Amino acid sequence: MSGAGTPPQRVRVTGPPRRRPPLARAREVDQETPLGELYLGSLLRDQLAIAVRTLAWIVGGLGLLPLVFFAWPALADHVVLGVPVAWWLLGVLAYPYLLLVGWRHLRRAERTEDAFTELMDEVGR
Amino acid sequence: MTASPVPGVVAIVLVTAATLAIGTWGLRLSRTTSDFFVASRTVDPRLNASAIGGEYLSAASFLGVAGLLLVSGADMLWYPVGWTAGFLVVLALVAAPLRRSGAYTLPDFAEARLGSRSVRTACSLLVVVIGWLYLLPQFQGAGLTLGAAVGAPYWVGPLVVGGVVLANVTSGGMRSVTFVQAFQYWLKLTALLLPAVVLALVWLGDGRPGAQETSGPFPDLVSWSRPVAEGGGQGLYVTYSVIVATFLGTMGLPHVVVRFYTNPDGRAARRTTLAVLGLLSAFYLVPPVYGALGRIYAPDLAAGGSDGLVLQLPHLMLDGLGADLLTGLVVAGAFAAFLSTSSGLSVAVAGVLSQDLVGRDRERGRLDGVLAFRLSAIVAVGVPCLTALAGADVGVARTVGLAFAVAASTFCPLLLLGIWWPRLTDVGALAGLVVGGLGSAGAAGLTLATDLGDRLDDAWGGWARLLLEQPAAWSVPLAMATMVGISRATPRRVPRHTTRFLVRLHAPEAVELDRG
Fold first, then answer.
1. ipTM
2. CATH number listed for the domain at residues B6-226+253-393
3. Residue ranges of B 202-221 with Cβ closer than 8 A to chain A
């Protein structure tokens, strides 16, 4: 108790915060909260999905060719502009195809990363 | 060869002089240990892509592919396609995360991801095995090529290549090697493309012989046009084994992977990879021209050895100065191929050796980093060089194929699961590396080093030999399954820092995060 005459100092009475203050989303990831794990998990899944689609293009476009030529050997006899068709496919066309698939992958992967960066820069809630 | 050795000698002297000059110039820019190992991680994607291209295009690409195409035809096109597609797989699954992991080498990555010294040691061992498997044929090829091009005795090639590589690697490390490699990509492309254009014009001038004969004089044209190996189901197996080894082995080649650490960030690593894809595509369009022209102008080569096709074709199609100039150019390109691939591999092997073997002394303060690296480089170059000199004849193309198979069976599962699967454990990884390594290297090594292959010739209708010689199609899935299976059986050993490490691998650098 303070002495008579001097009014007691005003004290602000507060309870413990009922909600924890909003974290920046990046901190959710840092502290491995369930929400943070969710963010990371979705980034991983998105990137993996893009990669799997790219692999599917490789397998579908190139990987099945031996099987196709094995199943229909007569295909190899076709000659286009004096060059057997397999030489066109594997000697020439395979390369622009790989480049195109790679370019598409790069664009999608970077776009996903940009979206993640924007999401992390926002303050939660 | 009847041609004079002069153009070849001039070409080799010029390439050697240019390589040493650029290496010395790079040395003036190299100051720190970080320069030595990763060029201080400041290499621009375009320069870096040229360097990767220069390093990756070995003698197998420059000389081997054209010869294989001449002899076997379209099923050999899978090698260049696979060596290119391998980089698309790297781009899709590995490039950016690997760079973001912040590790120097594959063993560094393994240790950081799994926190285990044993996995690290296994990886170091594998880097050295794969590196030496790949270096040995480079030195052998150099001996054979110098013999064919300038009539030098066999031992000259390995000694010259070994000496130049050692001088470059020990003097400037990664930074000077980066410039040398980039220069050598463009040299190799020019040296293959320009003669191909000239020779194709000569073919047009000759009235396009062979163009109308697609159904006539070559009885084996049908097999030459088929992109599947001979022998029914067994041929199909061989073709798919090549596809698996090349598509998936690229990511595990130590000299390729070490380059990703020289990128400034994950995005640059991805862009570098796409640029490499473009550079390799441009290069691999050319060897089929030699293969096709060889079918018309060098039918005798198709029966015997074929690695000389690129070197001999100019003289088979032209006379006089023109032929000499073109021969000089292709010899220069072939020699550049030996130098650049050997340099890259030596840097990678020396990096691992200096950190894991010689480096133990460094930790005790007995050796500084640069000296340790130089000592390791001597070992890294010396062992395969001496083995080549000792005359170990294991077959150039098959040894490179084996290096790819081992890389695909070990580092490919480790990288894929380490980057994308949080539940990988150290025990699982180790088991997978052992199974994949023993499966691929053991099986193929047995057939290379012993006559087991011949004795098994008739077993299981020829399948036994095939499965041993071309292990990739079964050893890669087996290693992958082992890693997943054992990891699942040991869930408590998942490293505690896994989530944080995956954040580091996948989150873009622009986001401020705790990366552990």
1. 0.88
2. 1.20.1740
3. 211-212, 214, 221
